[in-house]
């Protein structure tokens, strides 16, 4: 299992424009083969900060995800929206268990 976590930032005044774009990416990514979870969440204490969490079945499926048309569009759109501070990490994980 592959876990992706991180964050990025949009100017707070661009959040209204960014939300529907993020929604499209999330919906398309969640429909991909091998995607278990794909989430963007706004930090309630820090306007414009977006938290990222993803779970993929394998590195190969994550690599295929990065080559999709919706990810190419997302890369263009997020730049136009003023994305900064992107920090994303990928981890290999064993099976999870309830906490």
Describe the 3D structure:
The chain has a four-stranded antiparallel sheet with strand order 2-3-1-4. Strand 2 and strand 3 (49-56) form a beta hairpin. It has 99 residues and is α+β, with helices and mostly antiparallel strands. 36% of the residues lie in helices and 33% in strands. The chain has a single domain (2-92), classed as Alpha-Beta Plaits.
Detail the topology: elements first, then pairings.
Blueprint: E1 2-9, H1 15-30, E2 35-42, E3 49-56, H2 59-66, H3 69-80, E4 84-92
Antiparallel strand pairs: 1-3, 1-4, 2-3
- Specify the CATH architecture: 2-Layer Sandwich
CATH domain topology: Alpha-Beta Plaits
> How large a portion of the residues is in β-strands, by DSSP E?
25-35%
Distance between the termini: 18 Å
Oligomer: single chain
Secondary structure tally: strands: 4
The CATH C-level name is Alpha Beta
Kindly state the mean pLDDT as a whole number?
97
Q: Given the C-alpha coordinates, what overall shape results?
A: globular
The tally of helices reads 3
Largest sheet: 4 strands, antiparallel
Whole-angstrom Rg: 14 Å
Number of domains: 1
Order of strands in the sheet with most strands: 2-3-1-4
